[in-house]
Structure formats: structure tokens, C-alpha cells
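Hello again,

I reread your note about wanting to compare the complex against the isolated chains. To keep things tidy I'm splitting this into two emails, and this first one only covers the full assembly. Below are the input lines as submitted, including protein chains and any nucleic acid or small-molecule components. They are followed by the predicted structure of everything together. The single-chain runs will come separately.
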Amino acid sequence: MSSDVRFTDFKSDKQPTWCPGCGDFGTMNGMMKALANTGNSPDDTFVVAGIGCSGKIGTYMHSYALHGVHGRALPVGTGVKLANPDLEVMVAGGDGDGYSIGAGHFVHAVRRNVDMTYVVMDNRIYGLTKGQASPTSREDFETSTTPEGSKQPPVNPLALALASGASFIAQSFSSDAMRHTEIVQKAIEHDGFGFVNVFSPCVTFNDVDTYDYFRDSLVDLAEEDDYDPSDREQAKDAILDADKEYMGVLYENEDSVPYSERHGLDSDMSDIPDGAPEDAMDLVREFY
Amino acid sequence: MTDDELIWRIAGGSGDGIDSTSQNFAKALMRTGLNVFTHRHYPSRIRGGHTYVEIRAADHDVQSRGDGYNFLLALGDSFARNPKENAYYGDEETKPLSENLDDLREGGIIVYDSGLLDAEDVPELEERAEENDWHVFDIDLRSIAKEHGREVMRNTAGVGVTAALLGMELEPFENLMEEAMGGDILEQNIEVLHDAHEQVQEDYEFSHDLQVPEGSNDEEQVLVSGSNGVAYGALDAGCRFIAGYPMTPWTDVFTIMSQNLPEFGGISEQVEDEIAAAALAVGASHAGVKSMSGSSGGGFALMSEPLGLAEMTETPLVLIEAMRAGPSTGMPTKPEQSDLEHILYTSQGDSNRVVFAPGSPAEAYEQTRMAFKIAYDYQIPAIVIIDQKLSGENRSVPKSFFDRQPDPDPGSVLTEDEIAEAAHDESGKFQRFLHDTEDGVSPRSLPGQKGGRYLATGNEHNLAGHISEDPENRVAQMDRRMQKLESIRSELDDDHESQQSYTGPEDAEYGLITWGTQQGAVEEAVARLNEQGHSVKSIGVSDLMPYPAEEMTEFLESVDEAIVVEMNATAQFRGLTQKELGRFGEKLSSLLKYNGNPFEPWEIVEGFEAQIDGEGQTPGTNTRIEPAAGD
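Full-complex prediction:
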């Protein structure tokens, strides 16, 4: 890893096809800056994404990348990281990808605590399919497929993560470039599964959860003097707070033990030993 | 008639130690130099229910469960009786003694535990025994077991009785017990074994002819199931990553891998579902580690999307599909070959994969290794099909068959120096998906390698992996990916021994065609048919995709008629054959079975006679003949 990596080194020459003003521009820029700030090089970085507007991020970044199946970015990223722990694995997705079709994977990726980063671009809408309700849409939000609103409470991804035993839970806002970069950076540096829910507004299909809404309503935990992110009880209260939404690191388990350490994995698996283990044939001893 | 083989059936309830006892019995026979084959029949429940295992042992080659059996050890289902009488309904408690008595050969032996089973509850047992010259022994195994140890040891008592009736030494059994247990349990079991043995010798007179045949294998043998074969093949191929989710019968492979992989420096992870399982394997493989996953029908259905992703991103991957009877949950513990079309075509778009279907544990080992080799050389998913039958069926295989030397070759991957020389686009992205390669295989870098960055995507993409809907590029990429199948077919035809298994005279008049796990029964039927004066040969097809058109054409051209023997209701392999070859419709008929039990050789013999000679009767309701087109 060289220290002279600039964040623009992570940028590909492809112009994003996101709508002008889309929150994903800011989300991606912050990710690239955070990767550069943490001393990663593009050759050692692996970006995995699913399907949707968020899924295209691998196209716009100049790292190794995989643009896979809707909802399955986390399992693919998990496989990549387990196989080559030297890679910096960054999984990106949208709210539909992560909390609807991929919700099952989210819960288990959180509890598996593999040392990687998961950035969800949460715009509370399905954008690429042109404006349907997402799992984080408000219950009265009218869309083409929910003409009277979904009449279902939105998923609280932070609570889902906390209940699943998360070791790092954060929330950021794509247009607050400095804070967003800082928060993603902390997630990368975290020893375990670093989860960041990023409010990344859709300017075309969501006229409720807008830049203005988040700018006005988000409470930055950095400005709350007595907030201690290592305190799970405080985190629980903030995450379940029905009146306010927060930005910042909501929870970080300082004693997080990542998957690799729990399983005693200390080598790169692609370095396959030349021969069989000494007693390889004995492995069939039970069948003699 | 004196049988030249022993087919010993131990029957009882799930949880009564049928598996472990039969395993030891099979090993004891194997150690005397006999060839051994085991067949497992069990219900989808943890306790109780009717379970049996058959062990066929002979000096000649044994490739199937055989026709019927000649020794029944009916242990009784302790869970049908205990903890309280009539805890289960119906005739469960007499099943170990009554079920499939029709299959007991003339002159056969019945030993039943009179401590748990009452022969009077079994209709006409006495009359039938007389009629069929069965030798029936009622022995209170339960009491013998209780006297020296615990009731569960009545399986050991049953082995002692078997040994006495068949004139077997006890020493091999003692040795196996010493290897498996110790302390009081060992001592008690040995006492039970000896007491049962002595009681029979002292208290019973017997006049049966059945004996244990003498074995002549000099070389050391190991007892290996299809699941073992797959797992050892994977380990020796250099597989170092597996992710899975439990499902019968796939769980066996997953378990063996999970227990062995850490010793090879690898990782096994049980994940939340089969989508994740296949997706983790795609990720690990993409990062350069030989990886696998697998499931049975329903779980494999969930893998459709990651499988398609592996095809489109050209990520090598090996999946195992351990079939069971479908549709839906079907019959979870019964074999069937009805997932063939599912495996060949699942996932959207034109399928682009390699499929092997081994016919025995030894082939499972070889073809799993081959699946890894092809998958990693050609950057394509390869699927190995087994089923509930092969999965748990043990056969003796010479120990030297397994070389146990892991293959570290990562397949077609460039070094960093080669990457530096390779083509990049104007922005510096590595051209991972070059069109103009000879065999369709494009240059591959691994994440982390310097200068090898590219985008892998499930979208159609250009040379550097970027999404592209350009028509010319689309056709070029599709054609290149498909070209790989032709290259693989050429390699399999030209550079390796045929994966197919042939028996019978080359100039035979008639052919039997089968695929995968019914191969053994078909081959035994072929031997018998030729002995009876028919002129028959067989081909057991193992590499299903890319379809072995040359070999199949040659086989079909050489015979007047051929019967495709497979375990499904819709003649799937016959359909594939006609689709791939576009002719021979008038020559191909089918013998189908889908009642949950594998073919027995006699059913194939009679099916052949019914179809070809028109002389035999359609063999009962268990099989069905589907005539050739125009017949």
C-alpha cells in the first residue's frame, strides 16, 4: 500500500449515469476518499455491488469490482474477503438490495462479523425501476405500486443490525462530504463488519426524504457531548428513537473479534500448500 | 441353490444404530478380501420409522444392491414400542420383520429379535417360510443386550448371531469395536457379541446353505460412499473453500468437507441459505481460491442466480447436486434422477455450464477432480450430479486409488508479469474479456494482482468488463463463451480417457443407455442378459454437458435398438439425447422407475425382454416402459 494514493485514483473514466443531483455521487466520492485516506490502493480494493442505481458503483470506480445479483452483494463480498483477507472489501448496495431482497443476508453478514465494510445508499425508494416503495419508504408514501402507501412501517436497518449483534453501526448523509467520508473511514478501520447506512437522496422519485429534509432533521452525534458509541444501551436508545434520526457512529464494539480471528485464519488461502497434510490418507481411516 | 454372495439386511428403527452396525459389518467383510456394496433405505425422521441397510458382499464385482437379499436381521423398532407401548400407529413395529419379505430369496435366513418383535403379528410368516425354505430364528437379542450392558446393544447381539449362523470369526468385529469405542462400553459390547454367538451355537440347530463367500482381494480396500468420493475428489483437486446449507442428501458431502477442509488449510462456512452458499463460493473463487458449494433439488433451485452470475462473469465454480425424488419436497430420503433438466438449464438465458454424473464412488472421486480441472481451466461452472442412492452407498475401493496429492494449479490465471504485457483499455483497465482467443478462454487476473483491475458484471459487458449493449460485442461475447463448451468437448474427447462406462460385447445387437448412478445395476443386467443368450451392451454416460455427441452417435449407430434406463417419469436423458443428436428417435425406448427405489438388475433384465422380445411382462408396477417414437 502506497501512501501517495489519491482518491481520484479510485475513479474510473466512466461518467455515472445517475440523475444530476443524485445522492450517490456524494456517497461514492466519500467512499473513494475514505479508501485513499486509509492507505488502500485500487489494486488491493474490491468493490462488490448488487443491482439498482447503487449497483453501478463498480463501473465508476477504478478498483477490482463485481456487479452481481440483486440482493446478493454481501455473500459475494464475504466469499472474496474470506478467500483473500489482504483485499479491502467494500460492499455497496441500496435499501431495496440490502433490506428487502437481501435482508436475510444482511442479518447473517452482520453476525458473521467478517472484516469488511458495507455501505448502503438509502434513498427510501426504488429509483432505477422508476419509483416504487422500498422497505425504508414511509408507510403513507404513495408510489406507483403503493397508490395509498404501503401501510407498513419501514424497516429500521440500524435496529436490525443491532439486534443481529453488529459490532459497528453508523449512519451518514451523502451531501455532508466531510462527515460522510469520516464515518466511512471509521467503518473501514473497524475490526469487523463496518455497516454504514447513508442517506443518499433520490431527486427524481422521492419528494419526501429530500436533501432539505435530512439537512434539517438529522442530529449529528459528533455534536452530542455525552454520547458514547461504545455504550450499547445509548446506541439502542438512539437507534429506536421514534422522534429523531442520527448521523455518526451509533455503535462500535471496541472488543469486536472479526471472523478470521475467531476461526484462527492466519494465512491467505490462495497459497495452497504444495502437498497434502501429512496424515491426509488417515482422513479416511474411518472407512477402512 | 447356494448363493455365491451374501446380501445381509439389518432392519429396525432410525436411531437404533443400524448405520454404525452395518458400517462395521461391511468393513469386517471387506477386510476378508470381499467386494462390498451397501444400500441404505431410511425415512425422513430422526427417531423410529422403518430403516434398513443392505450389505452385499461377494468375491465377484458388486455394482448394485443386487436382486433381493438372503439374510434378514430384524432388530425391531425400539421407538415403536418404547417408551410406551403403541406410541406409534399402524404396523410400524412389525415392519422390520414384515416389510419387503417378498424380496427375501428362497433359502434365506431370518433372524428376529423376539424381545421386541412378535412373529404372530406378521401374517402368514410360518407358511411363507415353509414355502420359500426360509430359515427363521427367533432370538431374544434385547435380553442378551440388557444382561451385559444396555438395550441399544442388541445390534451387537444381532451381529454375534449373524456370525454364528454364517460361520464367521468374531475377531474382525472385536477389532472394529476396539477402534470405535473403549472402556465399559467396549467390554459390554464384546460380552454381548460373544454371548449371542455362543447361544446360537449351543442352542440352535441349523441346516441352511448360506455362507459367507471367500474373498480374494489382496490389496487393502477402503469403504467409500459417493459423498466420500466427491469430497476426496474436491480436496485432492485443491478445493479450499466450501459454503453450504444443510439438505438431505447433500448434507453428507458438506459434512465430510467441513470436517476435513481445516486440515487442508481451507474454510467451510454454513450460511443462511443456498443463494448465499453459492454466492460465497462465487466470491471466493473469483478471488482465486478453488471453491465449491452444492445442495439437493430445492436448494439448488435457489442457486440459479449465483450460478448464472458465475456463467456470465466467467467465474470458475463447482456445484454438487445430490438429487432426491421431487417435485417440491418430494421424497426427501429417496433417490430419483428427475433433476436433470433442472440442472442443465436452470437460470435465465442460454445455459453455459459443464455437467458430470458419476456412476460410482470411484467415479465420483475422478469426476469431481475433473470438474474442478475443467471449471478452473475454462472459467466456467461445473456441476457434479449425485443422488440419494450414490450419496450414501458404500463400496470397497482399493486404497491406492486415491492419490491424496492436492492439485495447486489455479487454472487459467495470469501472473503479474503477464498482466503487465496483456491488453488494457485506454483508462488502464485490464481487458479481461478479450473476444479473439483460440479456445474461448480469455485472460484472467485475480483481485489484488497489480494492474489487473477490471469490472466483473452480470450484465453483458465489453472487453474490460464494462456494461455494453452493443450488438456486435454481444454476439462476440456470447459466441466466445459458448466456444468454451466446444473446446471442453474436444479436450474430453481427445485428451482424456472417456468418462463413459462401457460393458458388453462391442458388436452387440442391442444397447442399454443409462446415466449417473444407475450404471451399476445396468451393467449387472447386461452381464446377465448376455449369459442368457441376448446380445447386449451398455453405455453409462457421465459427462452430460457438453453432450458427448460423438460417443453417443457411435454407440447408437452400432445397435438395432436401445433402451434408456433412468429414474424419472419423463425420460429426461432420452429427451436430451434426441435434442442433441436430432435423430435415433425410432431406436430409443425407455425403461423408467420413479417409485423412490433404485433399479434392481432383474427389473432391467425383464424390462429389456419385455421391450425387445415382447416376451416378458412389463416388470410389475415399479417400472414403466415408454416405447420408441412410432412404436
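For quick reference: Chain B has a mean pLDDT of 92.

B.
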